[in-house]
Amino acid sequence: MSNQSLIPSPSPTHTAARPSTAGEGTPASIQEINAVVKEASAWVPLLKSEIGKIIIGQQHLVDRLLIGLLAGGHILLEGLPGLAKTLAVKTLASAISTDFRRIQFTPDMLPADIIGTEIYNPRATGFEVKKGPIFASMILADEINRAPSKVQSALLEAMQEKQVTIGEESFTLPNLFLVLATQNPIEQEGTYPLPEAQVDRFMLKVVVDYPSRDEERLILDTVAHTDAIPPVRPVIGAEDVLAARRVVDTVYLDDRIKDYIVSLIFATREPENAGLDLKGYIETGASPRATINLKVTAKCIAFLQGRGYVIPDDIKACAPDVLRHRIRISYEAEAEGISSEDIVRQVLETVPVP
To answer: Which CA distances in Å does 214 have to 53, 63, 210, 228, 270?
Structure first.
């Protein structure tokens, strides 16, 4: 079925300048949504250009960081050292007028090093709260799997509920709160696997690979010294991001696309019903968070492309990053060298596209 059939026909009498408040299922608003999306996404090329001053290539990484920014979803970046994971996050933060904190995870960290703690004040003869670095809009959790589970779990409440509890008091985090975590492959020495509950709270897990040959040559020609990094100026503010998120919510999603998303998720839980012969390779399928995140990330991809509607290719583009860390493979799959990415690939190839 063509993508055009998934685009609603606009109403000839609809002349409003703003998207309809009736929600994503209002076909009559598609033309105005397109117009508003193009206007609201005008800052995207500026932001990409600013990031491009520092980051050469790695387009997939940059696009996924922007999706996380638009969706308000946390992102886990995995890759070998030296692939610009940390640099990409710091560059993104520098291009946005908001507060940013970097937390370097180490094996000797304590939860209080992240969220803060209560300190006794002898003058006031009582305890007062000293907030930790988690109280910022953008958090770089660098090498997050270098710290043990008790430290990693300190992020759970903040990532899911956008609040932090210290003692008997809870504190609300900023509206623009985003955790961008990096980790080295777990096979490396001195790393700890993240708790499954925390992994599921990351909207995307992005695997960062080596640059291409041409990109590597451009890096060689462009970077004269390791410390010769040009300055990055802020091109947008937190208000621009929050306004863009409201526009992303209005992007049109056809019912057939919604059914396609659900079919993909259920294929990871009940593969035999989807015609997949996976022979017990899947221990647990994707969670309902995956369903929600597929929808949101697809809308973000449409927004970044200046479109007011989602097409099946948007779902296919974001599915590996949404699903790779949510499918738990069995020991049999590991023994046969089958990864969660292989399973996602089979699911995308098997489930009919609307």
So the answer is: 17, 20, 11, 21, 42
Q: What is the pLDDT of residues 11-26, one digit of tens each?
A: 333 333 333 344 444 4
DSSP conformational letter for 179 = E
> From CA 29, how far away is CA 17, in angstroms rounded?
10
Which of 292, 282, 285, 237 lies closest to 261 in space, CA to CA? 292
Q: Global pTM?
A: 0.86
Kindly state the helix (H) or strand (E) to which residue 131 belongs, with its residue range: strand 126-131
* CATH number for the segment(s) 251-350: 1.10.8.80
Domains 45-235 and 251-350 share a fold: no
Contacts of 261 (CB under 8 A, 6+ apart): 291, 294, 295, 298, 315
The domain ranges of the chain are 45-235, 251-350
C-alpha 198, offset from chain centre: 14
The fold adopted by the segment(s) 45-235 is: Rossmann fold (3.40.50)
